[in-house]
Specification:
The chain has about 140 residues and is an alpha+beta fold. It has 3 helices and 9 strands.
């Protein structure tokens, strides 16, 4: 089980599918604000990791170096393409749940970045009923 104790270790970890083929590396981790559990990751794929695709962390495992998801490489790479710009609409979230067949999203369960208070505030964004997705990276405060 992947929990909030090892979120930062997930960033950059290699991701393998249920067919033992390497899919890519973790780009972003999505945390459910209500349950305080990681629910999705983006996986950097393609040449130089220029593309990102979403994969659920249901039934995934992490041994400290590698993440193993419960889906084949082809299944993950064929997932609906959704921009990983920090916001996911409710419709996009539903499309991912439908594609992976892993249930339905919890109503208006926001996702957040655990280190948001350590970064400069992003420009204001319109609130949606969907999910907000951001990376979980530690950036130490700048010295003045």
């Amino acid at each position: 089980m992947i929990d909030t104790n090892n979120l930062n270790d997930l960033i950059g970890a290699d991701v393998y599918g249920s067919d033992d083929q390497k899919i890519g590396s973790v780009g972003q981790v999505y945390v459910d604000a209500e349950a305080q559990t990681p629910t999705w990751v983006t996986i950097k794929t393609g040449l130089f990791g220029t593309s990102e695709t979403f994969a659920p962390l249901d039934d995934a495992s992490f041994d400290g170096n590698e993440v193993r998801v419960a889906y084949t490489k082809d299944k993950v790479k064929d997932a609906p393409r959704i921009s990983s710009d920090g916001n996911i609409s409710h419709e996009e979230e539903e499309a991912l749940y439908t594609y992976y067949g892993n249930g339905a999203p919890t109503p208006a369960a926001p996702l957040y970045d655990q280190d948001a208070d350590r970064r400069p505030a992003p420009p204001p964004r319109k609130r949606t009923n969907g999910l907000t997705v951001m990376t979980c990276r530690f950036r130490p405060p700048m010295m003045r």
